[in-house]
C-alpha cells in the first residue's frame, strides 16, 4: 500500500455535531418543527447539492448558502478530534505513505478543518466538491486523486465513515476501509463489504505493511 485517500467529515475530524446543528438551523427556519437531529443524520455523507435537491428543489443555492454561512461561523467550536488521528497520520507519512483527502466538502472548508487540526502539512492535496463533476460514490474524485498521485490502483485504499466512501473505492477499483467510529455505526458500514473496518486509526499502521 503506497497511498491512502481519506474522507474528511466523520473520518479525520468529528464534524457530526456541527453538521447536524447546521442542518437543524437551516431546516427549522424553513420547515419549523418538521425535522429532528436524528433525521439530519441521513444528510451526513451526500453533497449539500444532493441533499437540498431532495428537500427544497427550487431553493438549492439559497439553502446551501445559508448552510455554509452558519457552518463556517460555528465550525471551530463544534468540531472535535478523534483519538489517534494526527499521531497515526504523522507515522504513516514518516513511513513514506502518501496521503490525500477525497471529500464532498469544498476545498476551502477542508483546508479550514485541516488548519484547525494542525494536519495540513500531512497531506499532498485534497479533492473537494469543486474539483469534480460527480461526487462519491461516483469514482471520479477517487480516480482524480489516483491520477494526481501517479500510483497504481492496487497500491491505493479509500477510507471513510459512510457508504459513499466504500462504494467510491469499489467503483474506482481500489481497496476500501470503513471506520468503526462512524456515526452510522460499524454494522451499517459492514453491509457494503469494505476490505477493512478500522477500530482505531492506528490499525492502518499494520494494514499498510500487509503483502
Can you give a write-up of this model?
With 211 residues, the chain is an alpha/beta fold. It has two domains: 3-14 and 80-207, Rossmann fold, CATH 3.40.50; 16-78, Orthogonal Bundle (DNA polymerase, domain 1). The chain has ten helices and eight strands. It has helices at residues 16-30, 37-40, 48-55, 60-78, 85-94, 107-117, 140-149, 163-172, 186-190, 203-207; strands at residues 3-6, 13-14, 80-81, 98-102, 125-127, 156-160, 175-179, 196-198. It has a six-stranded parallel beta sheet, with helices on both faces. Helix 1 (16-30) crosses helix 4 and helix 3 (48-55) crosses helix 4 (60-78). The chain is globular.
Characteristic terms for this protein:
single chain, 211 residues, alpha/beta, Rossmann fold, DNA polymerase, domain 1, 2 domains, 6-stranded parallel beta sheet, two-stranded antiparallel ribbon, 10 helices, 14% strand
Quick structural overview:
The chain is α/β, with parallel strands linked by helices and 211 residues long.
Instruction: Tell me the fraction of residues in β-strands, as a range.
Output: 5-15%
**Rg (C-alpha, Å):** 17 Å
The helix tally amounts to 10
What's the rounded overall pLDDT mean?
Answer: 96
The major β-sheet equals: 6 strands, parallel
State the end-to-end distance: 8 Å
What is the CATH architecture assignment of the largest domain? 3-Layer(aba) Sandwich
Series of secondary-structure elements, N-terminal to C-terminal: EEHHHHEHEHEHEHEHEH
What name does the CATH topology of the largest domain carry? Rossmann fold
Category by helix and strand content: alpha/beta
Percent helix: 40-55%
Report the strand count.
8
Question: What's the structural domain tally?
Answer: 2
Strand order of the largest sheet: 5-4-1-6-7-8
CATH class of the largest domain: Alpha Beta
The CATH H-level homologous superfamily of the largest domain:
HAD superfamily/HAD-like
